[in-house]
UniProtKB/TrEMBL annotation:
Database matches in SMART domains: Lactamase_B
Organism annotation: Mucilaginibacter galii
Gene Ontology BP terms: glutathione metabolic process; hydrogen sulfide metabolic process
Protein name: MBL fold hydrolase
MF GO annotations: hydrolase activity; metal ion binding; sulfur dioxygenase activity; thiosulfate-cyanide sulfurtransferase activity
UniProtKB keywords: Hydrolase, Metal-binding
Gene3D superfamilies attached to this UniProt entry: Rhodanese-like domain, Ribonuclease Z/Hydroxyacylglutathione hydrolase-like
Transmembrane portions of the chain: none
Ranges where the Rhodanese domain occurs: 264-312, 360-440
UniProt signal peptide: none
Keyword Metal-binding assigned: yes
Pfam family name, one: Lactamase_B
């Protein structure tokens, strides 16, 4: 038996291939939308993809399970609780998939979602590994607050937190040497404080993972629910899309219009992904600066709501093609009204004067774009308005316009996006400045 891990660093997402001991058959777990790496790997191993297991309907990325089924004929397995619209075979407690001498056993492990499963791998009569989806992470466990209003099966976060407590303790009954393979690593918003490691063991997690420590259920629920990160706007959309099954990856990308229209639609958002230095020196009026970076998909789906059409701009053709693909990984390609290379524009962003600000802080309205937990742990400026970036477009009315506005975050990425949002929303009313990397002088 062989286990291969695939990593999408931008989404902090792990997917897996399990090969039988003869290498002729392969089962995938939680595949990403771009199925080419799995097809290439199967061809290299001279293996046939015979099954695809979805541990739950994912919120943070679009899965390629339906396209893999359509391309290879492989059976899709998911819990009956998902009530999936795609062709599938249910896979719940007591169900087993045989792969040579390997047996894949379904365990229902609700907590992150009511329909989550884990997959216990038995080889020659011994449990050797467990694929935990978003239930047990390395160093943490999945958040329980994503399914209160999403899908046909909704459950309150307190109920899911209690279910998580029980699911984790069930997983802890596995032998200490059993390998743990989760669906995400550090950087995901599906948990709070994941480790940088890519695999672990049940024994190591029982020793170091806070969520597996001995504690009363009510204390666990309290600890799990507090200080969860924000929920990006696209999460509920992706859950529903994954329950239906997404359009084939390359076919979806091919529908994106890749040319600049003669006249831009004034009702469509403009997402300019160029570095902030270029953006500030000249951009299209009203453009939003969501920079091409490691978490582009997350911020795009946190600022732009599902169904909101937008133009996608990049600094060159190669970057543009890459960003279209990354946009499709969260299912947003269908909202792109046009994708083209930016040649700048007539609107500029003013320069932030550190000395003037330091001497006259009272002359500015300071908007802190950090999350509430960051602000609580590291307060920076008295009387600053705390409006996290994902909420800014909806809360612009809270910002007074009687003096210049200065926007900051913790490093400059979020404030670049935030200042561009306010520059559009408050145009003609007040001057908007971005503190950018200068915030380091006040940390």
């Amino acid at each position: 038996m062989k286990i291969e891990q695939f990593v999408d660093e931008n989404l902090s997402q792990f997917s897996y291939a399990i090969l039988s001991e003869w290498g002729s058959s392969m089962i995938l777990i939680d595949p990403a939308r771009d199925i080419k790496p799995y097809l290439d790997y199967a061809a290299k191993q001279h293996a046939q993809i015979t099954g695809i297991i979805e541990t739950h309907p994912h919120a943070d990325f679009v899965s390629g399970h339906l396209e893999l089924h359509q391309t290879t004929g492989a059976t899709i397995y998911s819990s009956k609780l998902v009530k999936a619209a795609y062709p599938h075979q249910t896979f719940d407690d007591g169900d087993v998939i045989t792969l040579g001498k390997v047996r894949l056993k379904a365990w229902n492990t609700p907590g992150h979602s009511p329909d989550s499963i884990s997959v216990v791998v038995e080889h020659e009569g011994k449990n050797v590994a467990v694929f935990t989806g978003d239930t047990l992470f390395i160093g943490d466990c999945g958040r329980p607050d994503l399914r209160e209003t999403t899908g046909t099966l909704t459950v309150k976060r307190e109920e899911l937190a209690a279910a998580m407590y029980r699911s984790l303790r069930r997983l802890a009954t596995l032998n200490d040497e059993v390998l743990v393979y989760a669906a995400h690593g550090a950087g995901t918003l599906c948990g709070k404080s994941l480790s940088d490691a890519t695999e672990s063991t049940i024994g190591a997690e029982k020793s170091a993972n806070w969520s597996l420590q001995e504690m009363a259920e009510d204390r666990f629920i309290q600890a799990l629910l507090e200080d969860q990160p924000f929920i990006p706007k696209y999460f509920p959309y992706d859950v529903d899309l994954n329950k239906q099954g997404a359009e084939a990856f390359m076919a979806a990308i091919a529908t994106v219009p890749q040319e600049k229209p003669h006249r831009l639609n004034a009702n469509m958002a403009i997402v300019d992904t160029r570095p902030q230095q270029q953006f500030k020196q000249g951009h299209l009026p009203g453009a939003l600066n969501i920079q091409n970076g490691a978490k582009f998909e997350t911020w795009l789906g946190s600022i732009i709501a599902p169904g909101e059409p937008f133009y996608l701009l990049a600094e060159n053709e190669q970057v543009l093609r890459d960003l279209i693909r990354r946009t499709a990984k969260i299912g947003y390609e269908k909202f792109i009204g046009g994708a083209f290379v930016s040649d700048g524009g007539s609107e500029f962003t003013g320069n932030f004067d550190v000395e003037n600000f330091s001497a006259h802080k009272g002359d500015y309205t300071i908007v802190d774009m950090r999350n509430s937990t960051e602000v609580r742990e590291h307060p920076l400026f008295e009387n600053a308005l705390t409006i996290p970036l994902p909420e800014l477009r909806e809360r612009v009315a809270e910002i007074p316009t009687n003096k210049s506005v200065v926007v900051h975050c913790a490093g400059g990425y979020r404030s670049a996006a935030g200042s561009s949002i306010l520059q559009k929303a408050l145009s003609g009313k007040v001057k908007v400045l971005d503190m950018g990397e200068a915030v380091s002088l006040f940390l």
